[in-house]
Design brief:
The protein is α+β, with helices and mostly antiparallel strands. The chain folds into 2 domains: 233 residues, Rossmann fold (3-Layer(aba) Sandwich), CATH 3.40.50.300; 125 residues, OB fold (Dihydrolipoamide Acetyltransferase, E2P) (Beta Barrel). Strands 6-7-8-3-9-10 form a 6-stranded mixed beta sheet, with helices on both faces. The longest helix has 18 residues. The radius of gyration is 25 Å and the shape is elongated. It starts with 7 loop residues before the first strand and ends with a strand.
C-alpha cells in the first residue's frame, strides 16, 4: 500500500569528498508524518544526510528515494522537499510576504496573484504572524524571522520539510518556545519533518524518532525513550542524556544478567542489550536520577550501596545535582528530587554519604 511506503529512504548511501568519507552506507526509512531528528557531534555526517535528501549533494554510491522513487539525479528544485536553514536565508530586499511567496512565483505555471496572496496569508496564520506581510525583514525579531522562514517552506506544501539547526541562533527561552511551536505545527500540518541538531535536549523533546550518528555512520535509530532507556553502546548512552559510567570486565551471571567487575572488586549487576564476551572491557551505565543519596546504607538487600564523599552540590529547582566521589570508582553524578531531599536534608560538600541504586538497574554496555 502507498501509505506504507516510506516518504523518504537512504539505501546504502555513501558520500565521499575526495578521500574524506562524509557519510558511509546510510540506510534509513523515514515514515510519513513523523518528526525525525539526526543527532550527533560536528562532523558526524548528519548534515550530509540532510543534503542528500534535499538534493544539494548526490551520493557517491547507494540511493536516495522519495515516495518510493529513486531521485539520485533529480535536482533539488524539482524535489517535493523544502529546507529551513540555520540562518534562515531570507531576502532582505523583500518584505515578509515577498519572502514567503518567492517559491510560489517560481512555479510553472505560476498561480495567479490572488491565489498567491491567499496562500501567503494562510501560511502567516499557521506560524502566528497574521498581518505581518508588509513588514521588512530587518524589522522582525529572531524568532519572527524563524517563523517567516518556516512559512516560506510550508507554503509550497512539501512532502518533506528539512530543518538544518533552525533554532541555533535563538536564546534559550525563545528556543524552547519555538520547539513547542514546531511540534504543534508539524502535528497540525501532517508534513514529515527531518531535523538536524547537535542539541540532545532539542532532539529528545521534539522527535518521534532519533537517528544517532558518529563518524559518518548511523549508530542507532529509535524513539527518544528507547535511546534513553536502551542505548546500544556507550557512545549512544553518553550522547543521549547524562549518564555515569563505571568501567571494568564482563562476567556472566545467572538469570540473563551480566556482572561488571570494577576497580576495587566492586561488582555491578545489570542487563546487556547485546551479547558480551566474558572478560571483555565494558562499562556500566547508570543515569544520575537512578542513584539515591543517604547518610546510612539502606537496609533493602535489593540495593547496591557505595560509600562516597560529596564534592559539589548544585541546586536545580526540582532537583539537586551532587557530584560525589568513591575511592575506587571515582566521581559520578547523583540527581536527588526535591521531595526526597526534604526527607533526608541536603548534603554539604565534604560530607560522607552512601550512594545507592537498585540491584540490576545498570546497563552493561560495550565500552566503545
Amino acid at each position: 500500500m502507498e501509505s506504507q511506503t516510506p516518504i523518504a529512504e537512504l539505501r546504502g548511501a555513501t558520500k565521499l569528498f575526495g578521500e574524506v568519507v562524509a557519510a558511509q552506507d546510510l540506510s534509513l526509512a523515514i515514515r510519513r508524518g513523523e518528526f525525525l531528528s539526526f543527532l550527533g557531534p560536528s562532523g558526524c555526517g548528519k548534515t550530509t544526510a540532510l543534503r542528500l535528501l534535499a538534493g544539494f549533494e548526490q551520493p557517491t554510491s547507494g540511493d536516495v528515494l522519495l515516495d518510493g522513487q529513486r531521485v539520485n539525479d533529480v535536482p533539488a528544485h524539482l524535489r517535493p522537499v523544502n529546507m529551513v536553514f540555520q540562518h534562515y536565508a531570507l531576502f532582505p530586499h523583500l518584505d515578509v510576504a515577498g519572502n514567503i511567496a518567492y517559491g510560489l512565483r517560481q512555479r510553472r505555471p505560476r498561480p495567479d496573484a490572488a491565489a498567491i496572496a491567499a496562500a501567503v496569508e494562510a501560511a502567516l496564520r499557521m506560524v502566528r504572524l497574521p498581518g505581518f506581510g508588509d513588514r521588512r525583514i530587518w524589522e522582525m525579531s529572531g524568532g519572527q524571522q524563524q517563523r517567516v522562514a518556516l512559512a516560506r517552506a510550508i507554503v509550497n506544501e512539501p512532502k518533506l520539510l528539512l530543518l538544518d539547526e533552525p533554532l541555533a541562533a535563538l536564546d534559550k527561552k525563545l528556543r524552547r518556545d519555538m520547539q513547542i511551536e514546531l511540534q504543534g505545527l508539524q502535528r497540525s500540518l501532517g508534513i514529515t519533518f527531518v531535523l538536524v541538531t547537535h542539541d540532545q535536549e532539542e532532539a529528545l523533546s521534539m522527535s518521534d524518532r532519533i537517528c544517532i550518528m558518529r563518524g559518518g555512520r548511523i549508530e542507532q535509530v529509535g524513539t527518544p525513550r528507547d535511546l534513553y532507556d536502551r542505548p546500544r553502546n556507550r557512545y549512544v548512552a553518553d550522547f543521549v542524556g547524562k549518564s555515569n559510567f563505571f568501567e571494568g570486565r564482563a562476567e556472566a551471571a545467572p538469570g540473563g544478567q551480566t556482572i561488571l567487575v570494577a576497580a576495587g572488586g566492586h561488582r555491578i549487576a545489570g542487563t546487556a542489550p547485546a551479547p558480551l564476551a566474558a572478560g571483555a572491557r565494558v562499562a556500566a551505565s547508570l543515569r544520575p536520577e537512578q542513584i539515591g543519596l543517604a547518610r546510612a546504607a539502606p537496609e533493602d538487600g535489593g540495593r547496591i550501596a557505595l560509600p562516597v564523599e560529596v564534592v559539589t552540590r548544585i541546586f536545580l529547582g526540582e532537583h539537586t545535582e551532587y557530584l560525589v566521589r568513591n575511592r575506587d570508582l571515582g566521581e559520578f553524578l547523583v540527581l536527588v528530587p526535591r521531595q526526597a531531599e526534604a526527607a533526608t536534608g541536603a548534603f554539604d560538600p565534604g560530607e560522607a554519604a552512601q550512594a545507592h541504586w537498585r540491584q540490576g538497574d545498570a546497563l552493561i554496555l560495550a565500552d566503545t
